[in-house]
TrEMBL record:
Keywords: Lyase, Metal-binding, S-nitrosylation, Zinc. Reversible hydration of carbon dioxide. Pfam families: Pro_CA (PF00484). GO terms for molecular function: carbonate dehydratase activity; zinc ion binding. GO terms for biological process: carbon utilization. Its cofactor is Zn(2+). Transmembrane segments: none annotated. This is Carbonic anhydrase. The lineage of its organism: Eukaryota, Viridiplantae, Streptophyta, Embryophyta, Tracheophyta. It catalyses: hydrogencarbonate + H(+) = CO2 + H2O. Zn(2+) binds at residues 92, 94, 152, 155. InterPro entries: Beta_CA_cladeB, Carbonic_anhydrase, Carbonic_anhydrase_CS, Carbonic_anhydrase_sf. Its EC number is 4.2.1.1.
């Protein structure tokens, strides 16, 4: 009896799925067809365990597709032709400080480079070419009008910079990278060494932004653009303790 009931249930589900398949988009239709095939026994059901992380990605994209992409088709057709961002943004890789969310950028508005502690090294054609290529493409090819270096509170990279040269917890890559900020650390230590460590860290998070802004001017094509007024250098600091954002210009 139980087997017969199950078969009836399967047949009923198949009929429902077939009836609603028409009118669905291609992706959903494909999923429906696969499920019908599994119910018919032509495709063995997946034996893989449930993957919540994969589902998170699928649901995330489905939300974007249904609520943003599908509702702005004309805008995305224009983006498919070319991008014309006004901003180049250097932000930290920290999961709490996505500039597209914090600054409410739409797709196509900001060309973004993210790394540990949102640092920009000095011009060097032989080192840190990944950062140099981001800057070069944004300035020479995309013609951005603003370069923003965006720091933030409780930055792990800045905390590691402050700890150097503590070898008890050394890192193969991070330690070498954050040395870009050593001039900023030296300035904070000279001017604010009397302050509590937490206050020094907040100052260093901002001073490191200043250091990266100065480093941007070592790129000849950036310096020329700033001097002729076609690019504005901007610093920013997002404090997620109190939900504030400060910004300033490099004069």
């Amino acid at each position: 009896m139980a087997k017969h009931s199950a078969e009836v249930l399967v047949e009923g589900l198949k009929k429902i799925l077939i009836s609603v398949k028409e009118g669905l988009d291609e992706k959903v239709q494909g999923k429906v067809e696969k499920l019908i095939a599994e119910l018919q026994g032509t495709v063995p059901p997946s034996l893989e365990p449930f993957d919540p992380d994969a589902q998170k990605l699928e649901l995330g994209f489905d939300f974007f597709k249904n609520n943003i992409f599908d509702k702005n088709r004309e805008y995305f057709r224009e983006l498919a032709e070319a991008q014309h961002p006004k901003f180049l943004v250097f932000a930290c890789s920290d999961s709490r400080v996505s500039p597209s969310i914090v600054l409410n950028f739409k797709l196509g508005e900001a060309f973004i480079g993210r790394n540990i502690a949102n640092m920009v090294p000095q011009f060097d054609q032989w080192r840190h070419t990944e950062i140099g290529s981001v800057i070069e493409y944004a300035v020479k090819e995309l013609g951005v009008e603003n370069i923003l270096v965006m720091g933030h509170s409780h930055c792990g990279g800045i905390a590691r910079l402050m700890e150097l040269p503590d070898h008890s917890c050394s890192h193969d890559f991070i330690d070498e990278w954050v040395k870009i900020g050593l001039p900023a650390k030296q300035k904070v230590k000279e001017e604010a060494n009397h302050l509590p460590e937490e206050e020094q860290l907040r100052l260093l998070e901002k001073e490191s932004v200043e250091n990266s802004m100065a480093n941007l001017l070592t790129y000849p094509f950036v310096r020329n653009a700033v001097e002729n007024g076609s690019i504005t250098l901007r610093g920013g600091y997002y404090n997620f303790d109190n939900g504030t954002f400060q910004q300033w210009k490099k004069m």
